[in-house]
Specification:
mainly alpha, Butyryl-CoA Dehydrogenase, subunit A, domain 3, 9 helices
């Protein structure tokens, strides 16, 4: 029995919608993957976990692609998935780990590091940021790396603006205390003037 023209048209329409949806998702993935991978790296602290986190976030986004009503808010939605997935990984007993700054790490940070690509400040500073608790690190990453407002950060993390402000303040105070003098831009400016 041959399919009716209505059946062929309906099947074709569904296939066309699916292809359009997949093409839209693929275009979004290609455009945003590098940026989201950087954000995930800043949340996790290593490339492998960041890649896994982004892969999980894109898989969840794909399943919800048709449900996202405001296409302009997809970035915020994916960032929220990244943060939630990162938090859930930390809750699993077998994934628990803490980044602490032992005396050796802080001593190593006191010495200038030089690299052919950069002066080593970024990597050394990142080592200090990694010592922050995960929630404080998420606030710092979203506020200062992603350049999100306090309200946007609060929306992504599902916390109040006041909580964003207090966590940011405490995180920055902690970073100031833990950052070696050699990484302080003011001390480098003073050295340049001398």
């Amino acid at each position: 029995m041959d399919p009716t023209p209505e059946h062929q048209t309906g099947t074709t329409a569904v296939a066309d919608r699916r292809q359009t949806r997949d093409a839209d998702f693929a275009a979004y993935l290609a455009a945003r993957q590098p940026s989201l991978l950087r954000t995930a790296y800043l949340l996790t602290g290593n490339r492998h976990d960041a890649e896994d986190l982004v892969q999980n976030a894109f898989a969840k986004l794909y399943l919800s692609w048709d449900k996202v009503r405001n296409q302009g808010s997809i970035d915020g939605y994916v960032r929220r998935i990244l943060v939630n997935e990162h938090n859930s990984l930390w809750r699993r007993a077998w994934k628990k780990r803490e980044h602490i700054a032992d005396d050796e790490t802080l001593h190593r940070l006191d010495r200038p590091q030089h690299d052919a690509q950069h002066d080593g400040v970024d990597a050394a500073l990142w080592d200090v940021v990694q010592t922050l608790p995960r929630k404080a690190r998420a606030v710092v990453v979203l506020r200062y790396y992603e350049e999100m407002s306090e309200a946007e950060t609060a929306a992504v993390l599902g916390i109040s603006v006041g909580t964003v402000k207090s966590q940011t303040s405490r995180a920055l105070a902690t970073l100031r205390d833990r950052t070696p003098q050699t990484l302080n831009p003011r001390s480098r400016e003073e050295d340049d003037l001398s």
